[in-house]
């Protein structure tokens, strides 16, 4: 199966994500009432992810004024719930991102360096702004844990894009 990179301005296709600790699935890429920002993190094993998500959690009310925020990883539900309990994250935390979903999003995928790191493949970080009609507005992906978007700048830019109904850029 081939997995083309997601194209900004195009529908991302239905992306069902299981919410940790709830009997609920969030399906992105279909019509929704609001914009959605999807953040993909590496998983429980990643301390840089924890710092990034702590910043996101602190800024969450400002984000939620303008869009829904969904965070996911390939982690099991148990690992996701352990993180949620340990760090008190208030955003929708999903789990079980599959290899096909990682590929469909155009994410870089890594194998653990050792069993001490983690026990399964995982996605490297990504951020995706999705319009209410399910089309992709913005993509930011990294091949490693050190490169992350600045959350203040990203939110400011997204507010500008939403408020001014800006067109998708970088389509060529």
Automatic annotation (TrEMBL):
One short Pfam name that applies is AhpC-TSA
Q: Which Gene3D superfamilies match?
A: Glutaredoxin
Q: Highest taxon of the source? A: Bacteria
Q: Which InterPro entries match?
A: AhpC/TSA (IPR000866), Thioredoxin-like_sf (IPR036249), Thioredoxin_domain (IPR013766)
Q: Which part of the chain is the Thioredoxin domain?
A: 6-160
Give the protein name, as stated in the record. Answer: Redoxin domain-containing protein
Species, as recorded? Tropicibacter oceani
């Amino acid at each position: 199966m081939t997995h083309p990179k997601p194209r900004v301005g195009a529908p991302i296709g239905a992306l069902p994500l299981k919410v940790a600790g709830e009997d609920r699935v969030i399906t992105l890429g279909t019509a929704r009432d609001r914009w959605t920002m999807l953040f993909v993190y590496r998983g429980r094993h990643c301390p840089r992810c924890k710092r990034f998500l702590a910043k996101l959690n602190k800024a969450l009310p400002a984000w939620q004024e303008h869009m829904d925020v969904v965070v996911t990883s390939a982690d099991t539900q148990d690992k996701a719930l352990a993180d949620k309990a340990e760090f008190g994250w208030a955003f929708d935390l999903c789990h079980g991102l599959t290899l096909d979903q990682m590929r469909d999003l155009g994410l870089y995928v890594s194998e653990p360096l050792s069993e001490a790191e983690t026990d399964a493949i995982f996605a490297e970080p990504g951020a995706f702004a999705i319009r209410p009609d399910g089309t992709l507005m913005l993509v930011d992906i990294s091949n490693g844990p050190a490169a992350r978007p600045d959350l203040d700048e990203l939110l400011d830019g997204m507010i500008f894009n939403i408020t001014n109904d800006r067109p998708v850029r970088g389509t060529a």
